[in-house]
Design goal:
73 residues, two-stranded antiparallel ribbon, 3 helices, globular
Length: 73
């Protein structure tokens, strides 16, 4: 019985596909945000992995906000 023990399950690591689905954006957008906006990501071997809680906080603090740059046509 774990109720009241204060133990929690560790947060799972998400793939680029997983975090893209979580945020409702494309995987290309995720890679762009890593490179251009400092999206919190951890490289494990050749793969990028994400903690949803870190990314959610980054979004809340304006990390994914639209930039002031003009749109590309």
């Amino acid at each position: 019985m774990f109720a009241g023990t204060g133990t929690t399950m560790p947060e799972p690591w998400l793939s680029a596909d997983g975090i893209a689905a979580h945020l409702g954006v494309t995987k290309d957008t995720v890679y762009s945000w890593i490179a251009d906006r400092g999206m919190p990501a951890h490289k494990i071997g050749r793969l990028w992995k994400f903690q949803a809680s870190e990314v959610d906080e980054w979004v809340r603090t304006g990390g994914a906000a639209a930039s002031e740059e003009p749109a590309h046509d």
